[in-house]
Amino acid sequence: MRYWLFKSEPNVWSWDDQVAKGDQGEEWDGIRNYQARNFMREMQIGDRGLFYHSNIGKEAVGVVEVCATVHPDSSTDDPRWECVDIRALYPLGRAVRLDEIKAEPRLAEMVLVNNSRLSVQPVSEDEWRVIHELAGSLAEA
DNA sequence: GCCAACGTTGGC
DNA sequence: GCCAACGTTGGC
């Protein structure tokens, strides 16, 4: 199983919106960046991801699971763009803010810190554990 | 609201 | 295939 991070502006699509979709999940559509799309192509069902609020909040708020592998993005006719489906699994014990992530030496290599514009990105297993530690959540939840 | 960083586009 | 111009993202 691999770990990822999904960025969303909460005024457009928030964690609460994601939770409201329930177990059926929702397309992670609208990605128009090759790097991000290529990461989605690597995703497997059951992979986990952090749900991160950009712009407003700037914090990781919950954990999602990939529930459909990559398929055409229904929000465009352009065949270049594909996406996966994700569903909400559980909220973090508390939100972990970007400034905390930047202040944590063990997270200095996170893509979020070094390439803040990439909207879908991989997270290492160590980083995954540290985020959960900061959130007061069990990584195995 | 500003602007730096980055990605994409298109002319050559 | 280079690179200038432009558009977008996202932190501040």
Automatic annotation (TrEMBL):
CDD domains documented for this protein: EVE (cd21133)
Occurrences of domain EVE (ranges): 2-134
Source taxon at top rank: Bacteria
Pfam family, one: EVE
UniProt xrefs under InterPro entries: 5hmC_binding, EVE_domain, PUA-like_sf, THYN1-like_EVE
Protein's name in the database: RNA-binding protein with PUA-like domain
Source organism: Limimaricola variabilis
